[in-house]
Amino acid sequence: MTFIRFLHLLGIGVWVGAAASALWLVRAAAADQAARRADRLELVGRLYTWLVAPAAVLATASGMAITMMGANAGYGERLGEPTSAAMQGLGLLAGALAIFVTFPASQRLFRAVLAADQAGLATAGERMRRRLAAIEPVILALIVIATYLGVLGTPHG
Asked: Pick from 17, 104, 128, 155: most CB atoms within 10 A?
């Protein structure tokens, strides 16, 4: 179980760091000139492909594994307490939003930037850029709250 917890914490750390970096790039790209903007948004697509999405999957899957192992170890009642239940629910919601909303949006953004000609670089993927800029702070807040609740409500023993 210790290795799974390590993987869980590693996934959370990489997820938060990479997603915060991508969010910064998405917001900074809004004021950039076309070529610089395209470079930043291309990097956002790569960050999501190589770091954000795999880390979100790792953190979500390892969190579910920890919950199942805790239930099998006799912590089922404690896992159902409000703090633990909220942590699990918020973590799953953050994972679902990252995997099913922001990752596809980042890939559509990435493809739009790569396919744009020089004239279209300024507006390439603008809708997806705005979607990422709006949803990613919510996901990061959910992760931070879930992590805080995890520290408060995790059964020790």
From this structure: 128
